[in-house]
Write a structure and sequence with these properties.
The protein is α/β, with parallel strands linked by helices. It has 14 helices and eleven strands.
Length: 312
């Protein structure tokens, strides 16, 4: 596939890996890049030294383009931007805020900048600020979410900006990718599906929960705290929903380190298993290369079928 996203990122297929904190390791990112997409290190939980180490590890695993995701809520955001500048990271994605102040410097250093947006107004602002593309991420996605569904958000953002739009949220196969393209997207970002891959380094408990979950087995925690996140339903997630209503401060304290416990330890009792609603579409663990191949094959079939229906 060749389009504006593949040309911008110098990749073979317009599939980006979501910037998942703790789960977005060099090994998984390298597997996505080597399979023709854009692997992305999730730096959300890292300090600058840890990000330097992760970038260097990734460079040992692939000579393909890759990216780093920076969560603007991180206390190290300024320093992480300095790291990507010094390490000549080719692509940076941003989440959880407005990265406009960083864009000029990154662009001056030849770095491609792709922020995640949850509204058309932010997409337009970031286009004016010099962003190369935007990721329109709907509320079906795992982790921190906005308030608008993917189908509405992508449709609106694609009508609102001239730069390429990459769809995210609820995308795990070729049919959902085709749907995103029909709405005006030129690429997709995938997170949850890559968690259930051979190269994913999340705990086996995490992978098992994804495989056994249905499309209704996620819940949004943190809404009362101002930072909603979609996670798999567990007794812990239900407990958080109750606590945050009664005592937001206590909920904040209980949530500290919960994603790390889920990813590294598979802790069912005190871990937050971030995942999107697409968990109900995932039923097997596959190598990343096979996942991407299957997505592209199904995308091709879906587009051909649609064309055949239109031409009848």
């Amino acid at each position: 596939m060749r389009n504006r996203v593949t040309e911008l990122l110098k990749i073979d297929c317009p599939i980006l890996m979501g910037g998942m904190a703790w789960a977005g390791t060099p090994k998984l990112a390298a597997a996505v890049s080597n399979a023709g997409g854009l692997g992305v290190i999730g730096s959300g939980a890292m300090n600058p030294d840890q990000l330097v180490q992760a970038v260097n590890s990734l460079k040992q695993l692939t000579d393909k383009p890759f990216g780093v995701n920076i969560m603007l809520a991180s206390p190290h955001a300024d320093e992480l931007v300095e790291v990507v500048l010094k390490e000549h990271v080719p692509v940076v994605t941003f989440g959880a805020g407005n990265p406009a102040k960083y864009i000029p410097t990154l662009k001056q250093h030849g770095i491609t900048v792709i922020p995640v947006v949850a509204s058309d107004s932010l997409a337009k602002l970031l286009e004016r600020s010099g962003a190369d593309a935007v990721i329109a991420e709907g509320m079906e996605s795992g982790g921190h979410i906005g308030e608008v569904t993917t189908i509405v958000l992508v449709n609106k953002v694609a009508r609102s900006v001239k730069i390429p739009v990459i769809a995210a949220g609820g995308i795990a196969d070729g049919r959902s990718m085709a749907a995103a393209f029909a709405l005006g997207a030129e690429g997709v970002q995938i997170g949850t599906r890559f968690l259930a891959s051979v190269e994913s380094e999340v705990h086996d408990n995490y992978k098992k929960k994804i495989l056994t979950a249905s499309i209704r087995d996620t819940v949004v925690t943190g809404s009362k705290l101002g930072h909603p996140a979609r996670v798999l339903k567990t007794p812990f997630a239900k407990q958080i929903c109750q606590i945050e209503t009664e005592s937001p401060l206590q909920a904040e304290q209980v949530l500290v380190g919960s994603l790390k416990r889920a990813v590294l330890e598979g802790d069912i009792n005190s871990g937050s298993f971030m995942a999107g609603q697409v968990v109900g579409l995932i039923d097997e663990i596959l190598p990343v290369k096979e996942i991407i191949s299957k997505i592209l094959e199904e995308f091709d079939r879906a587009v051909k079928k649609l064309c055949e229906e239109v031409l009848r």
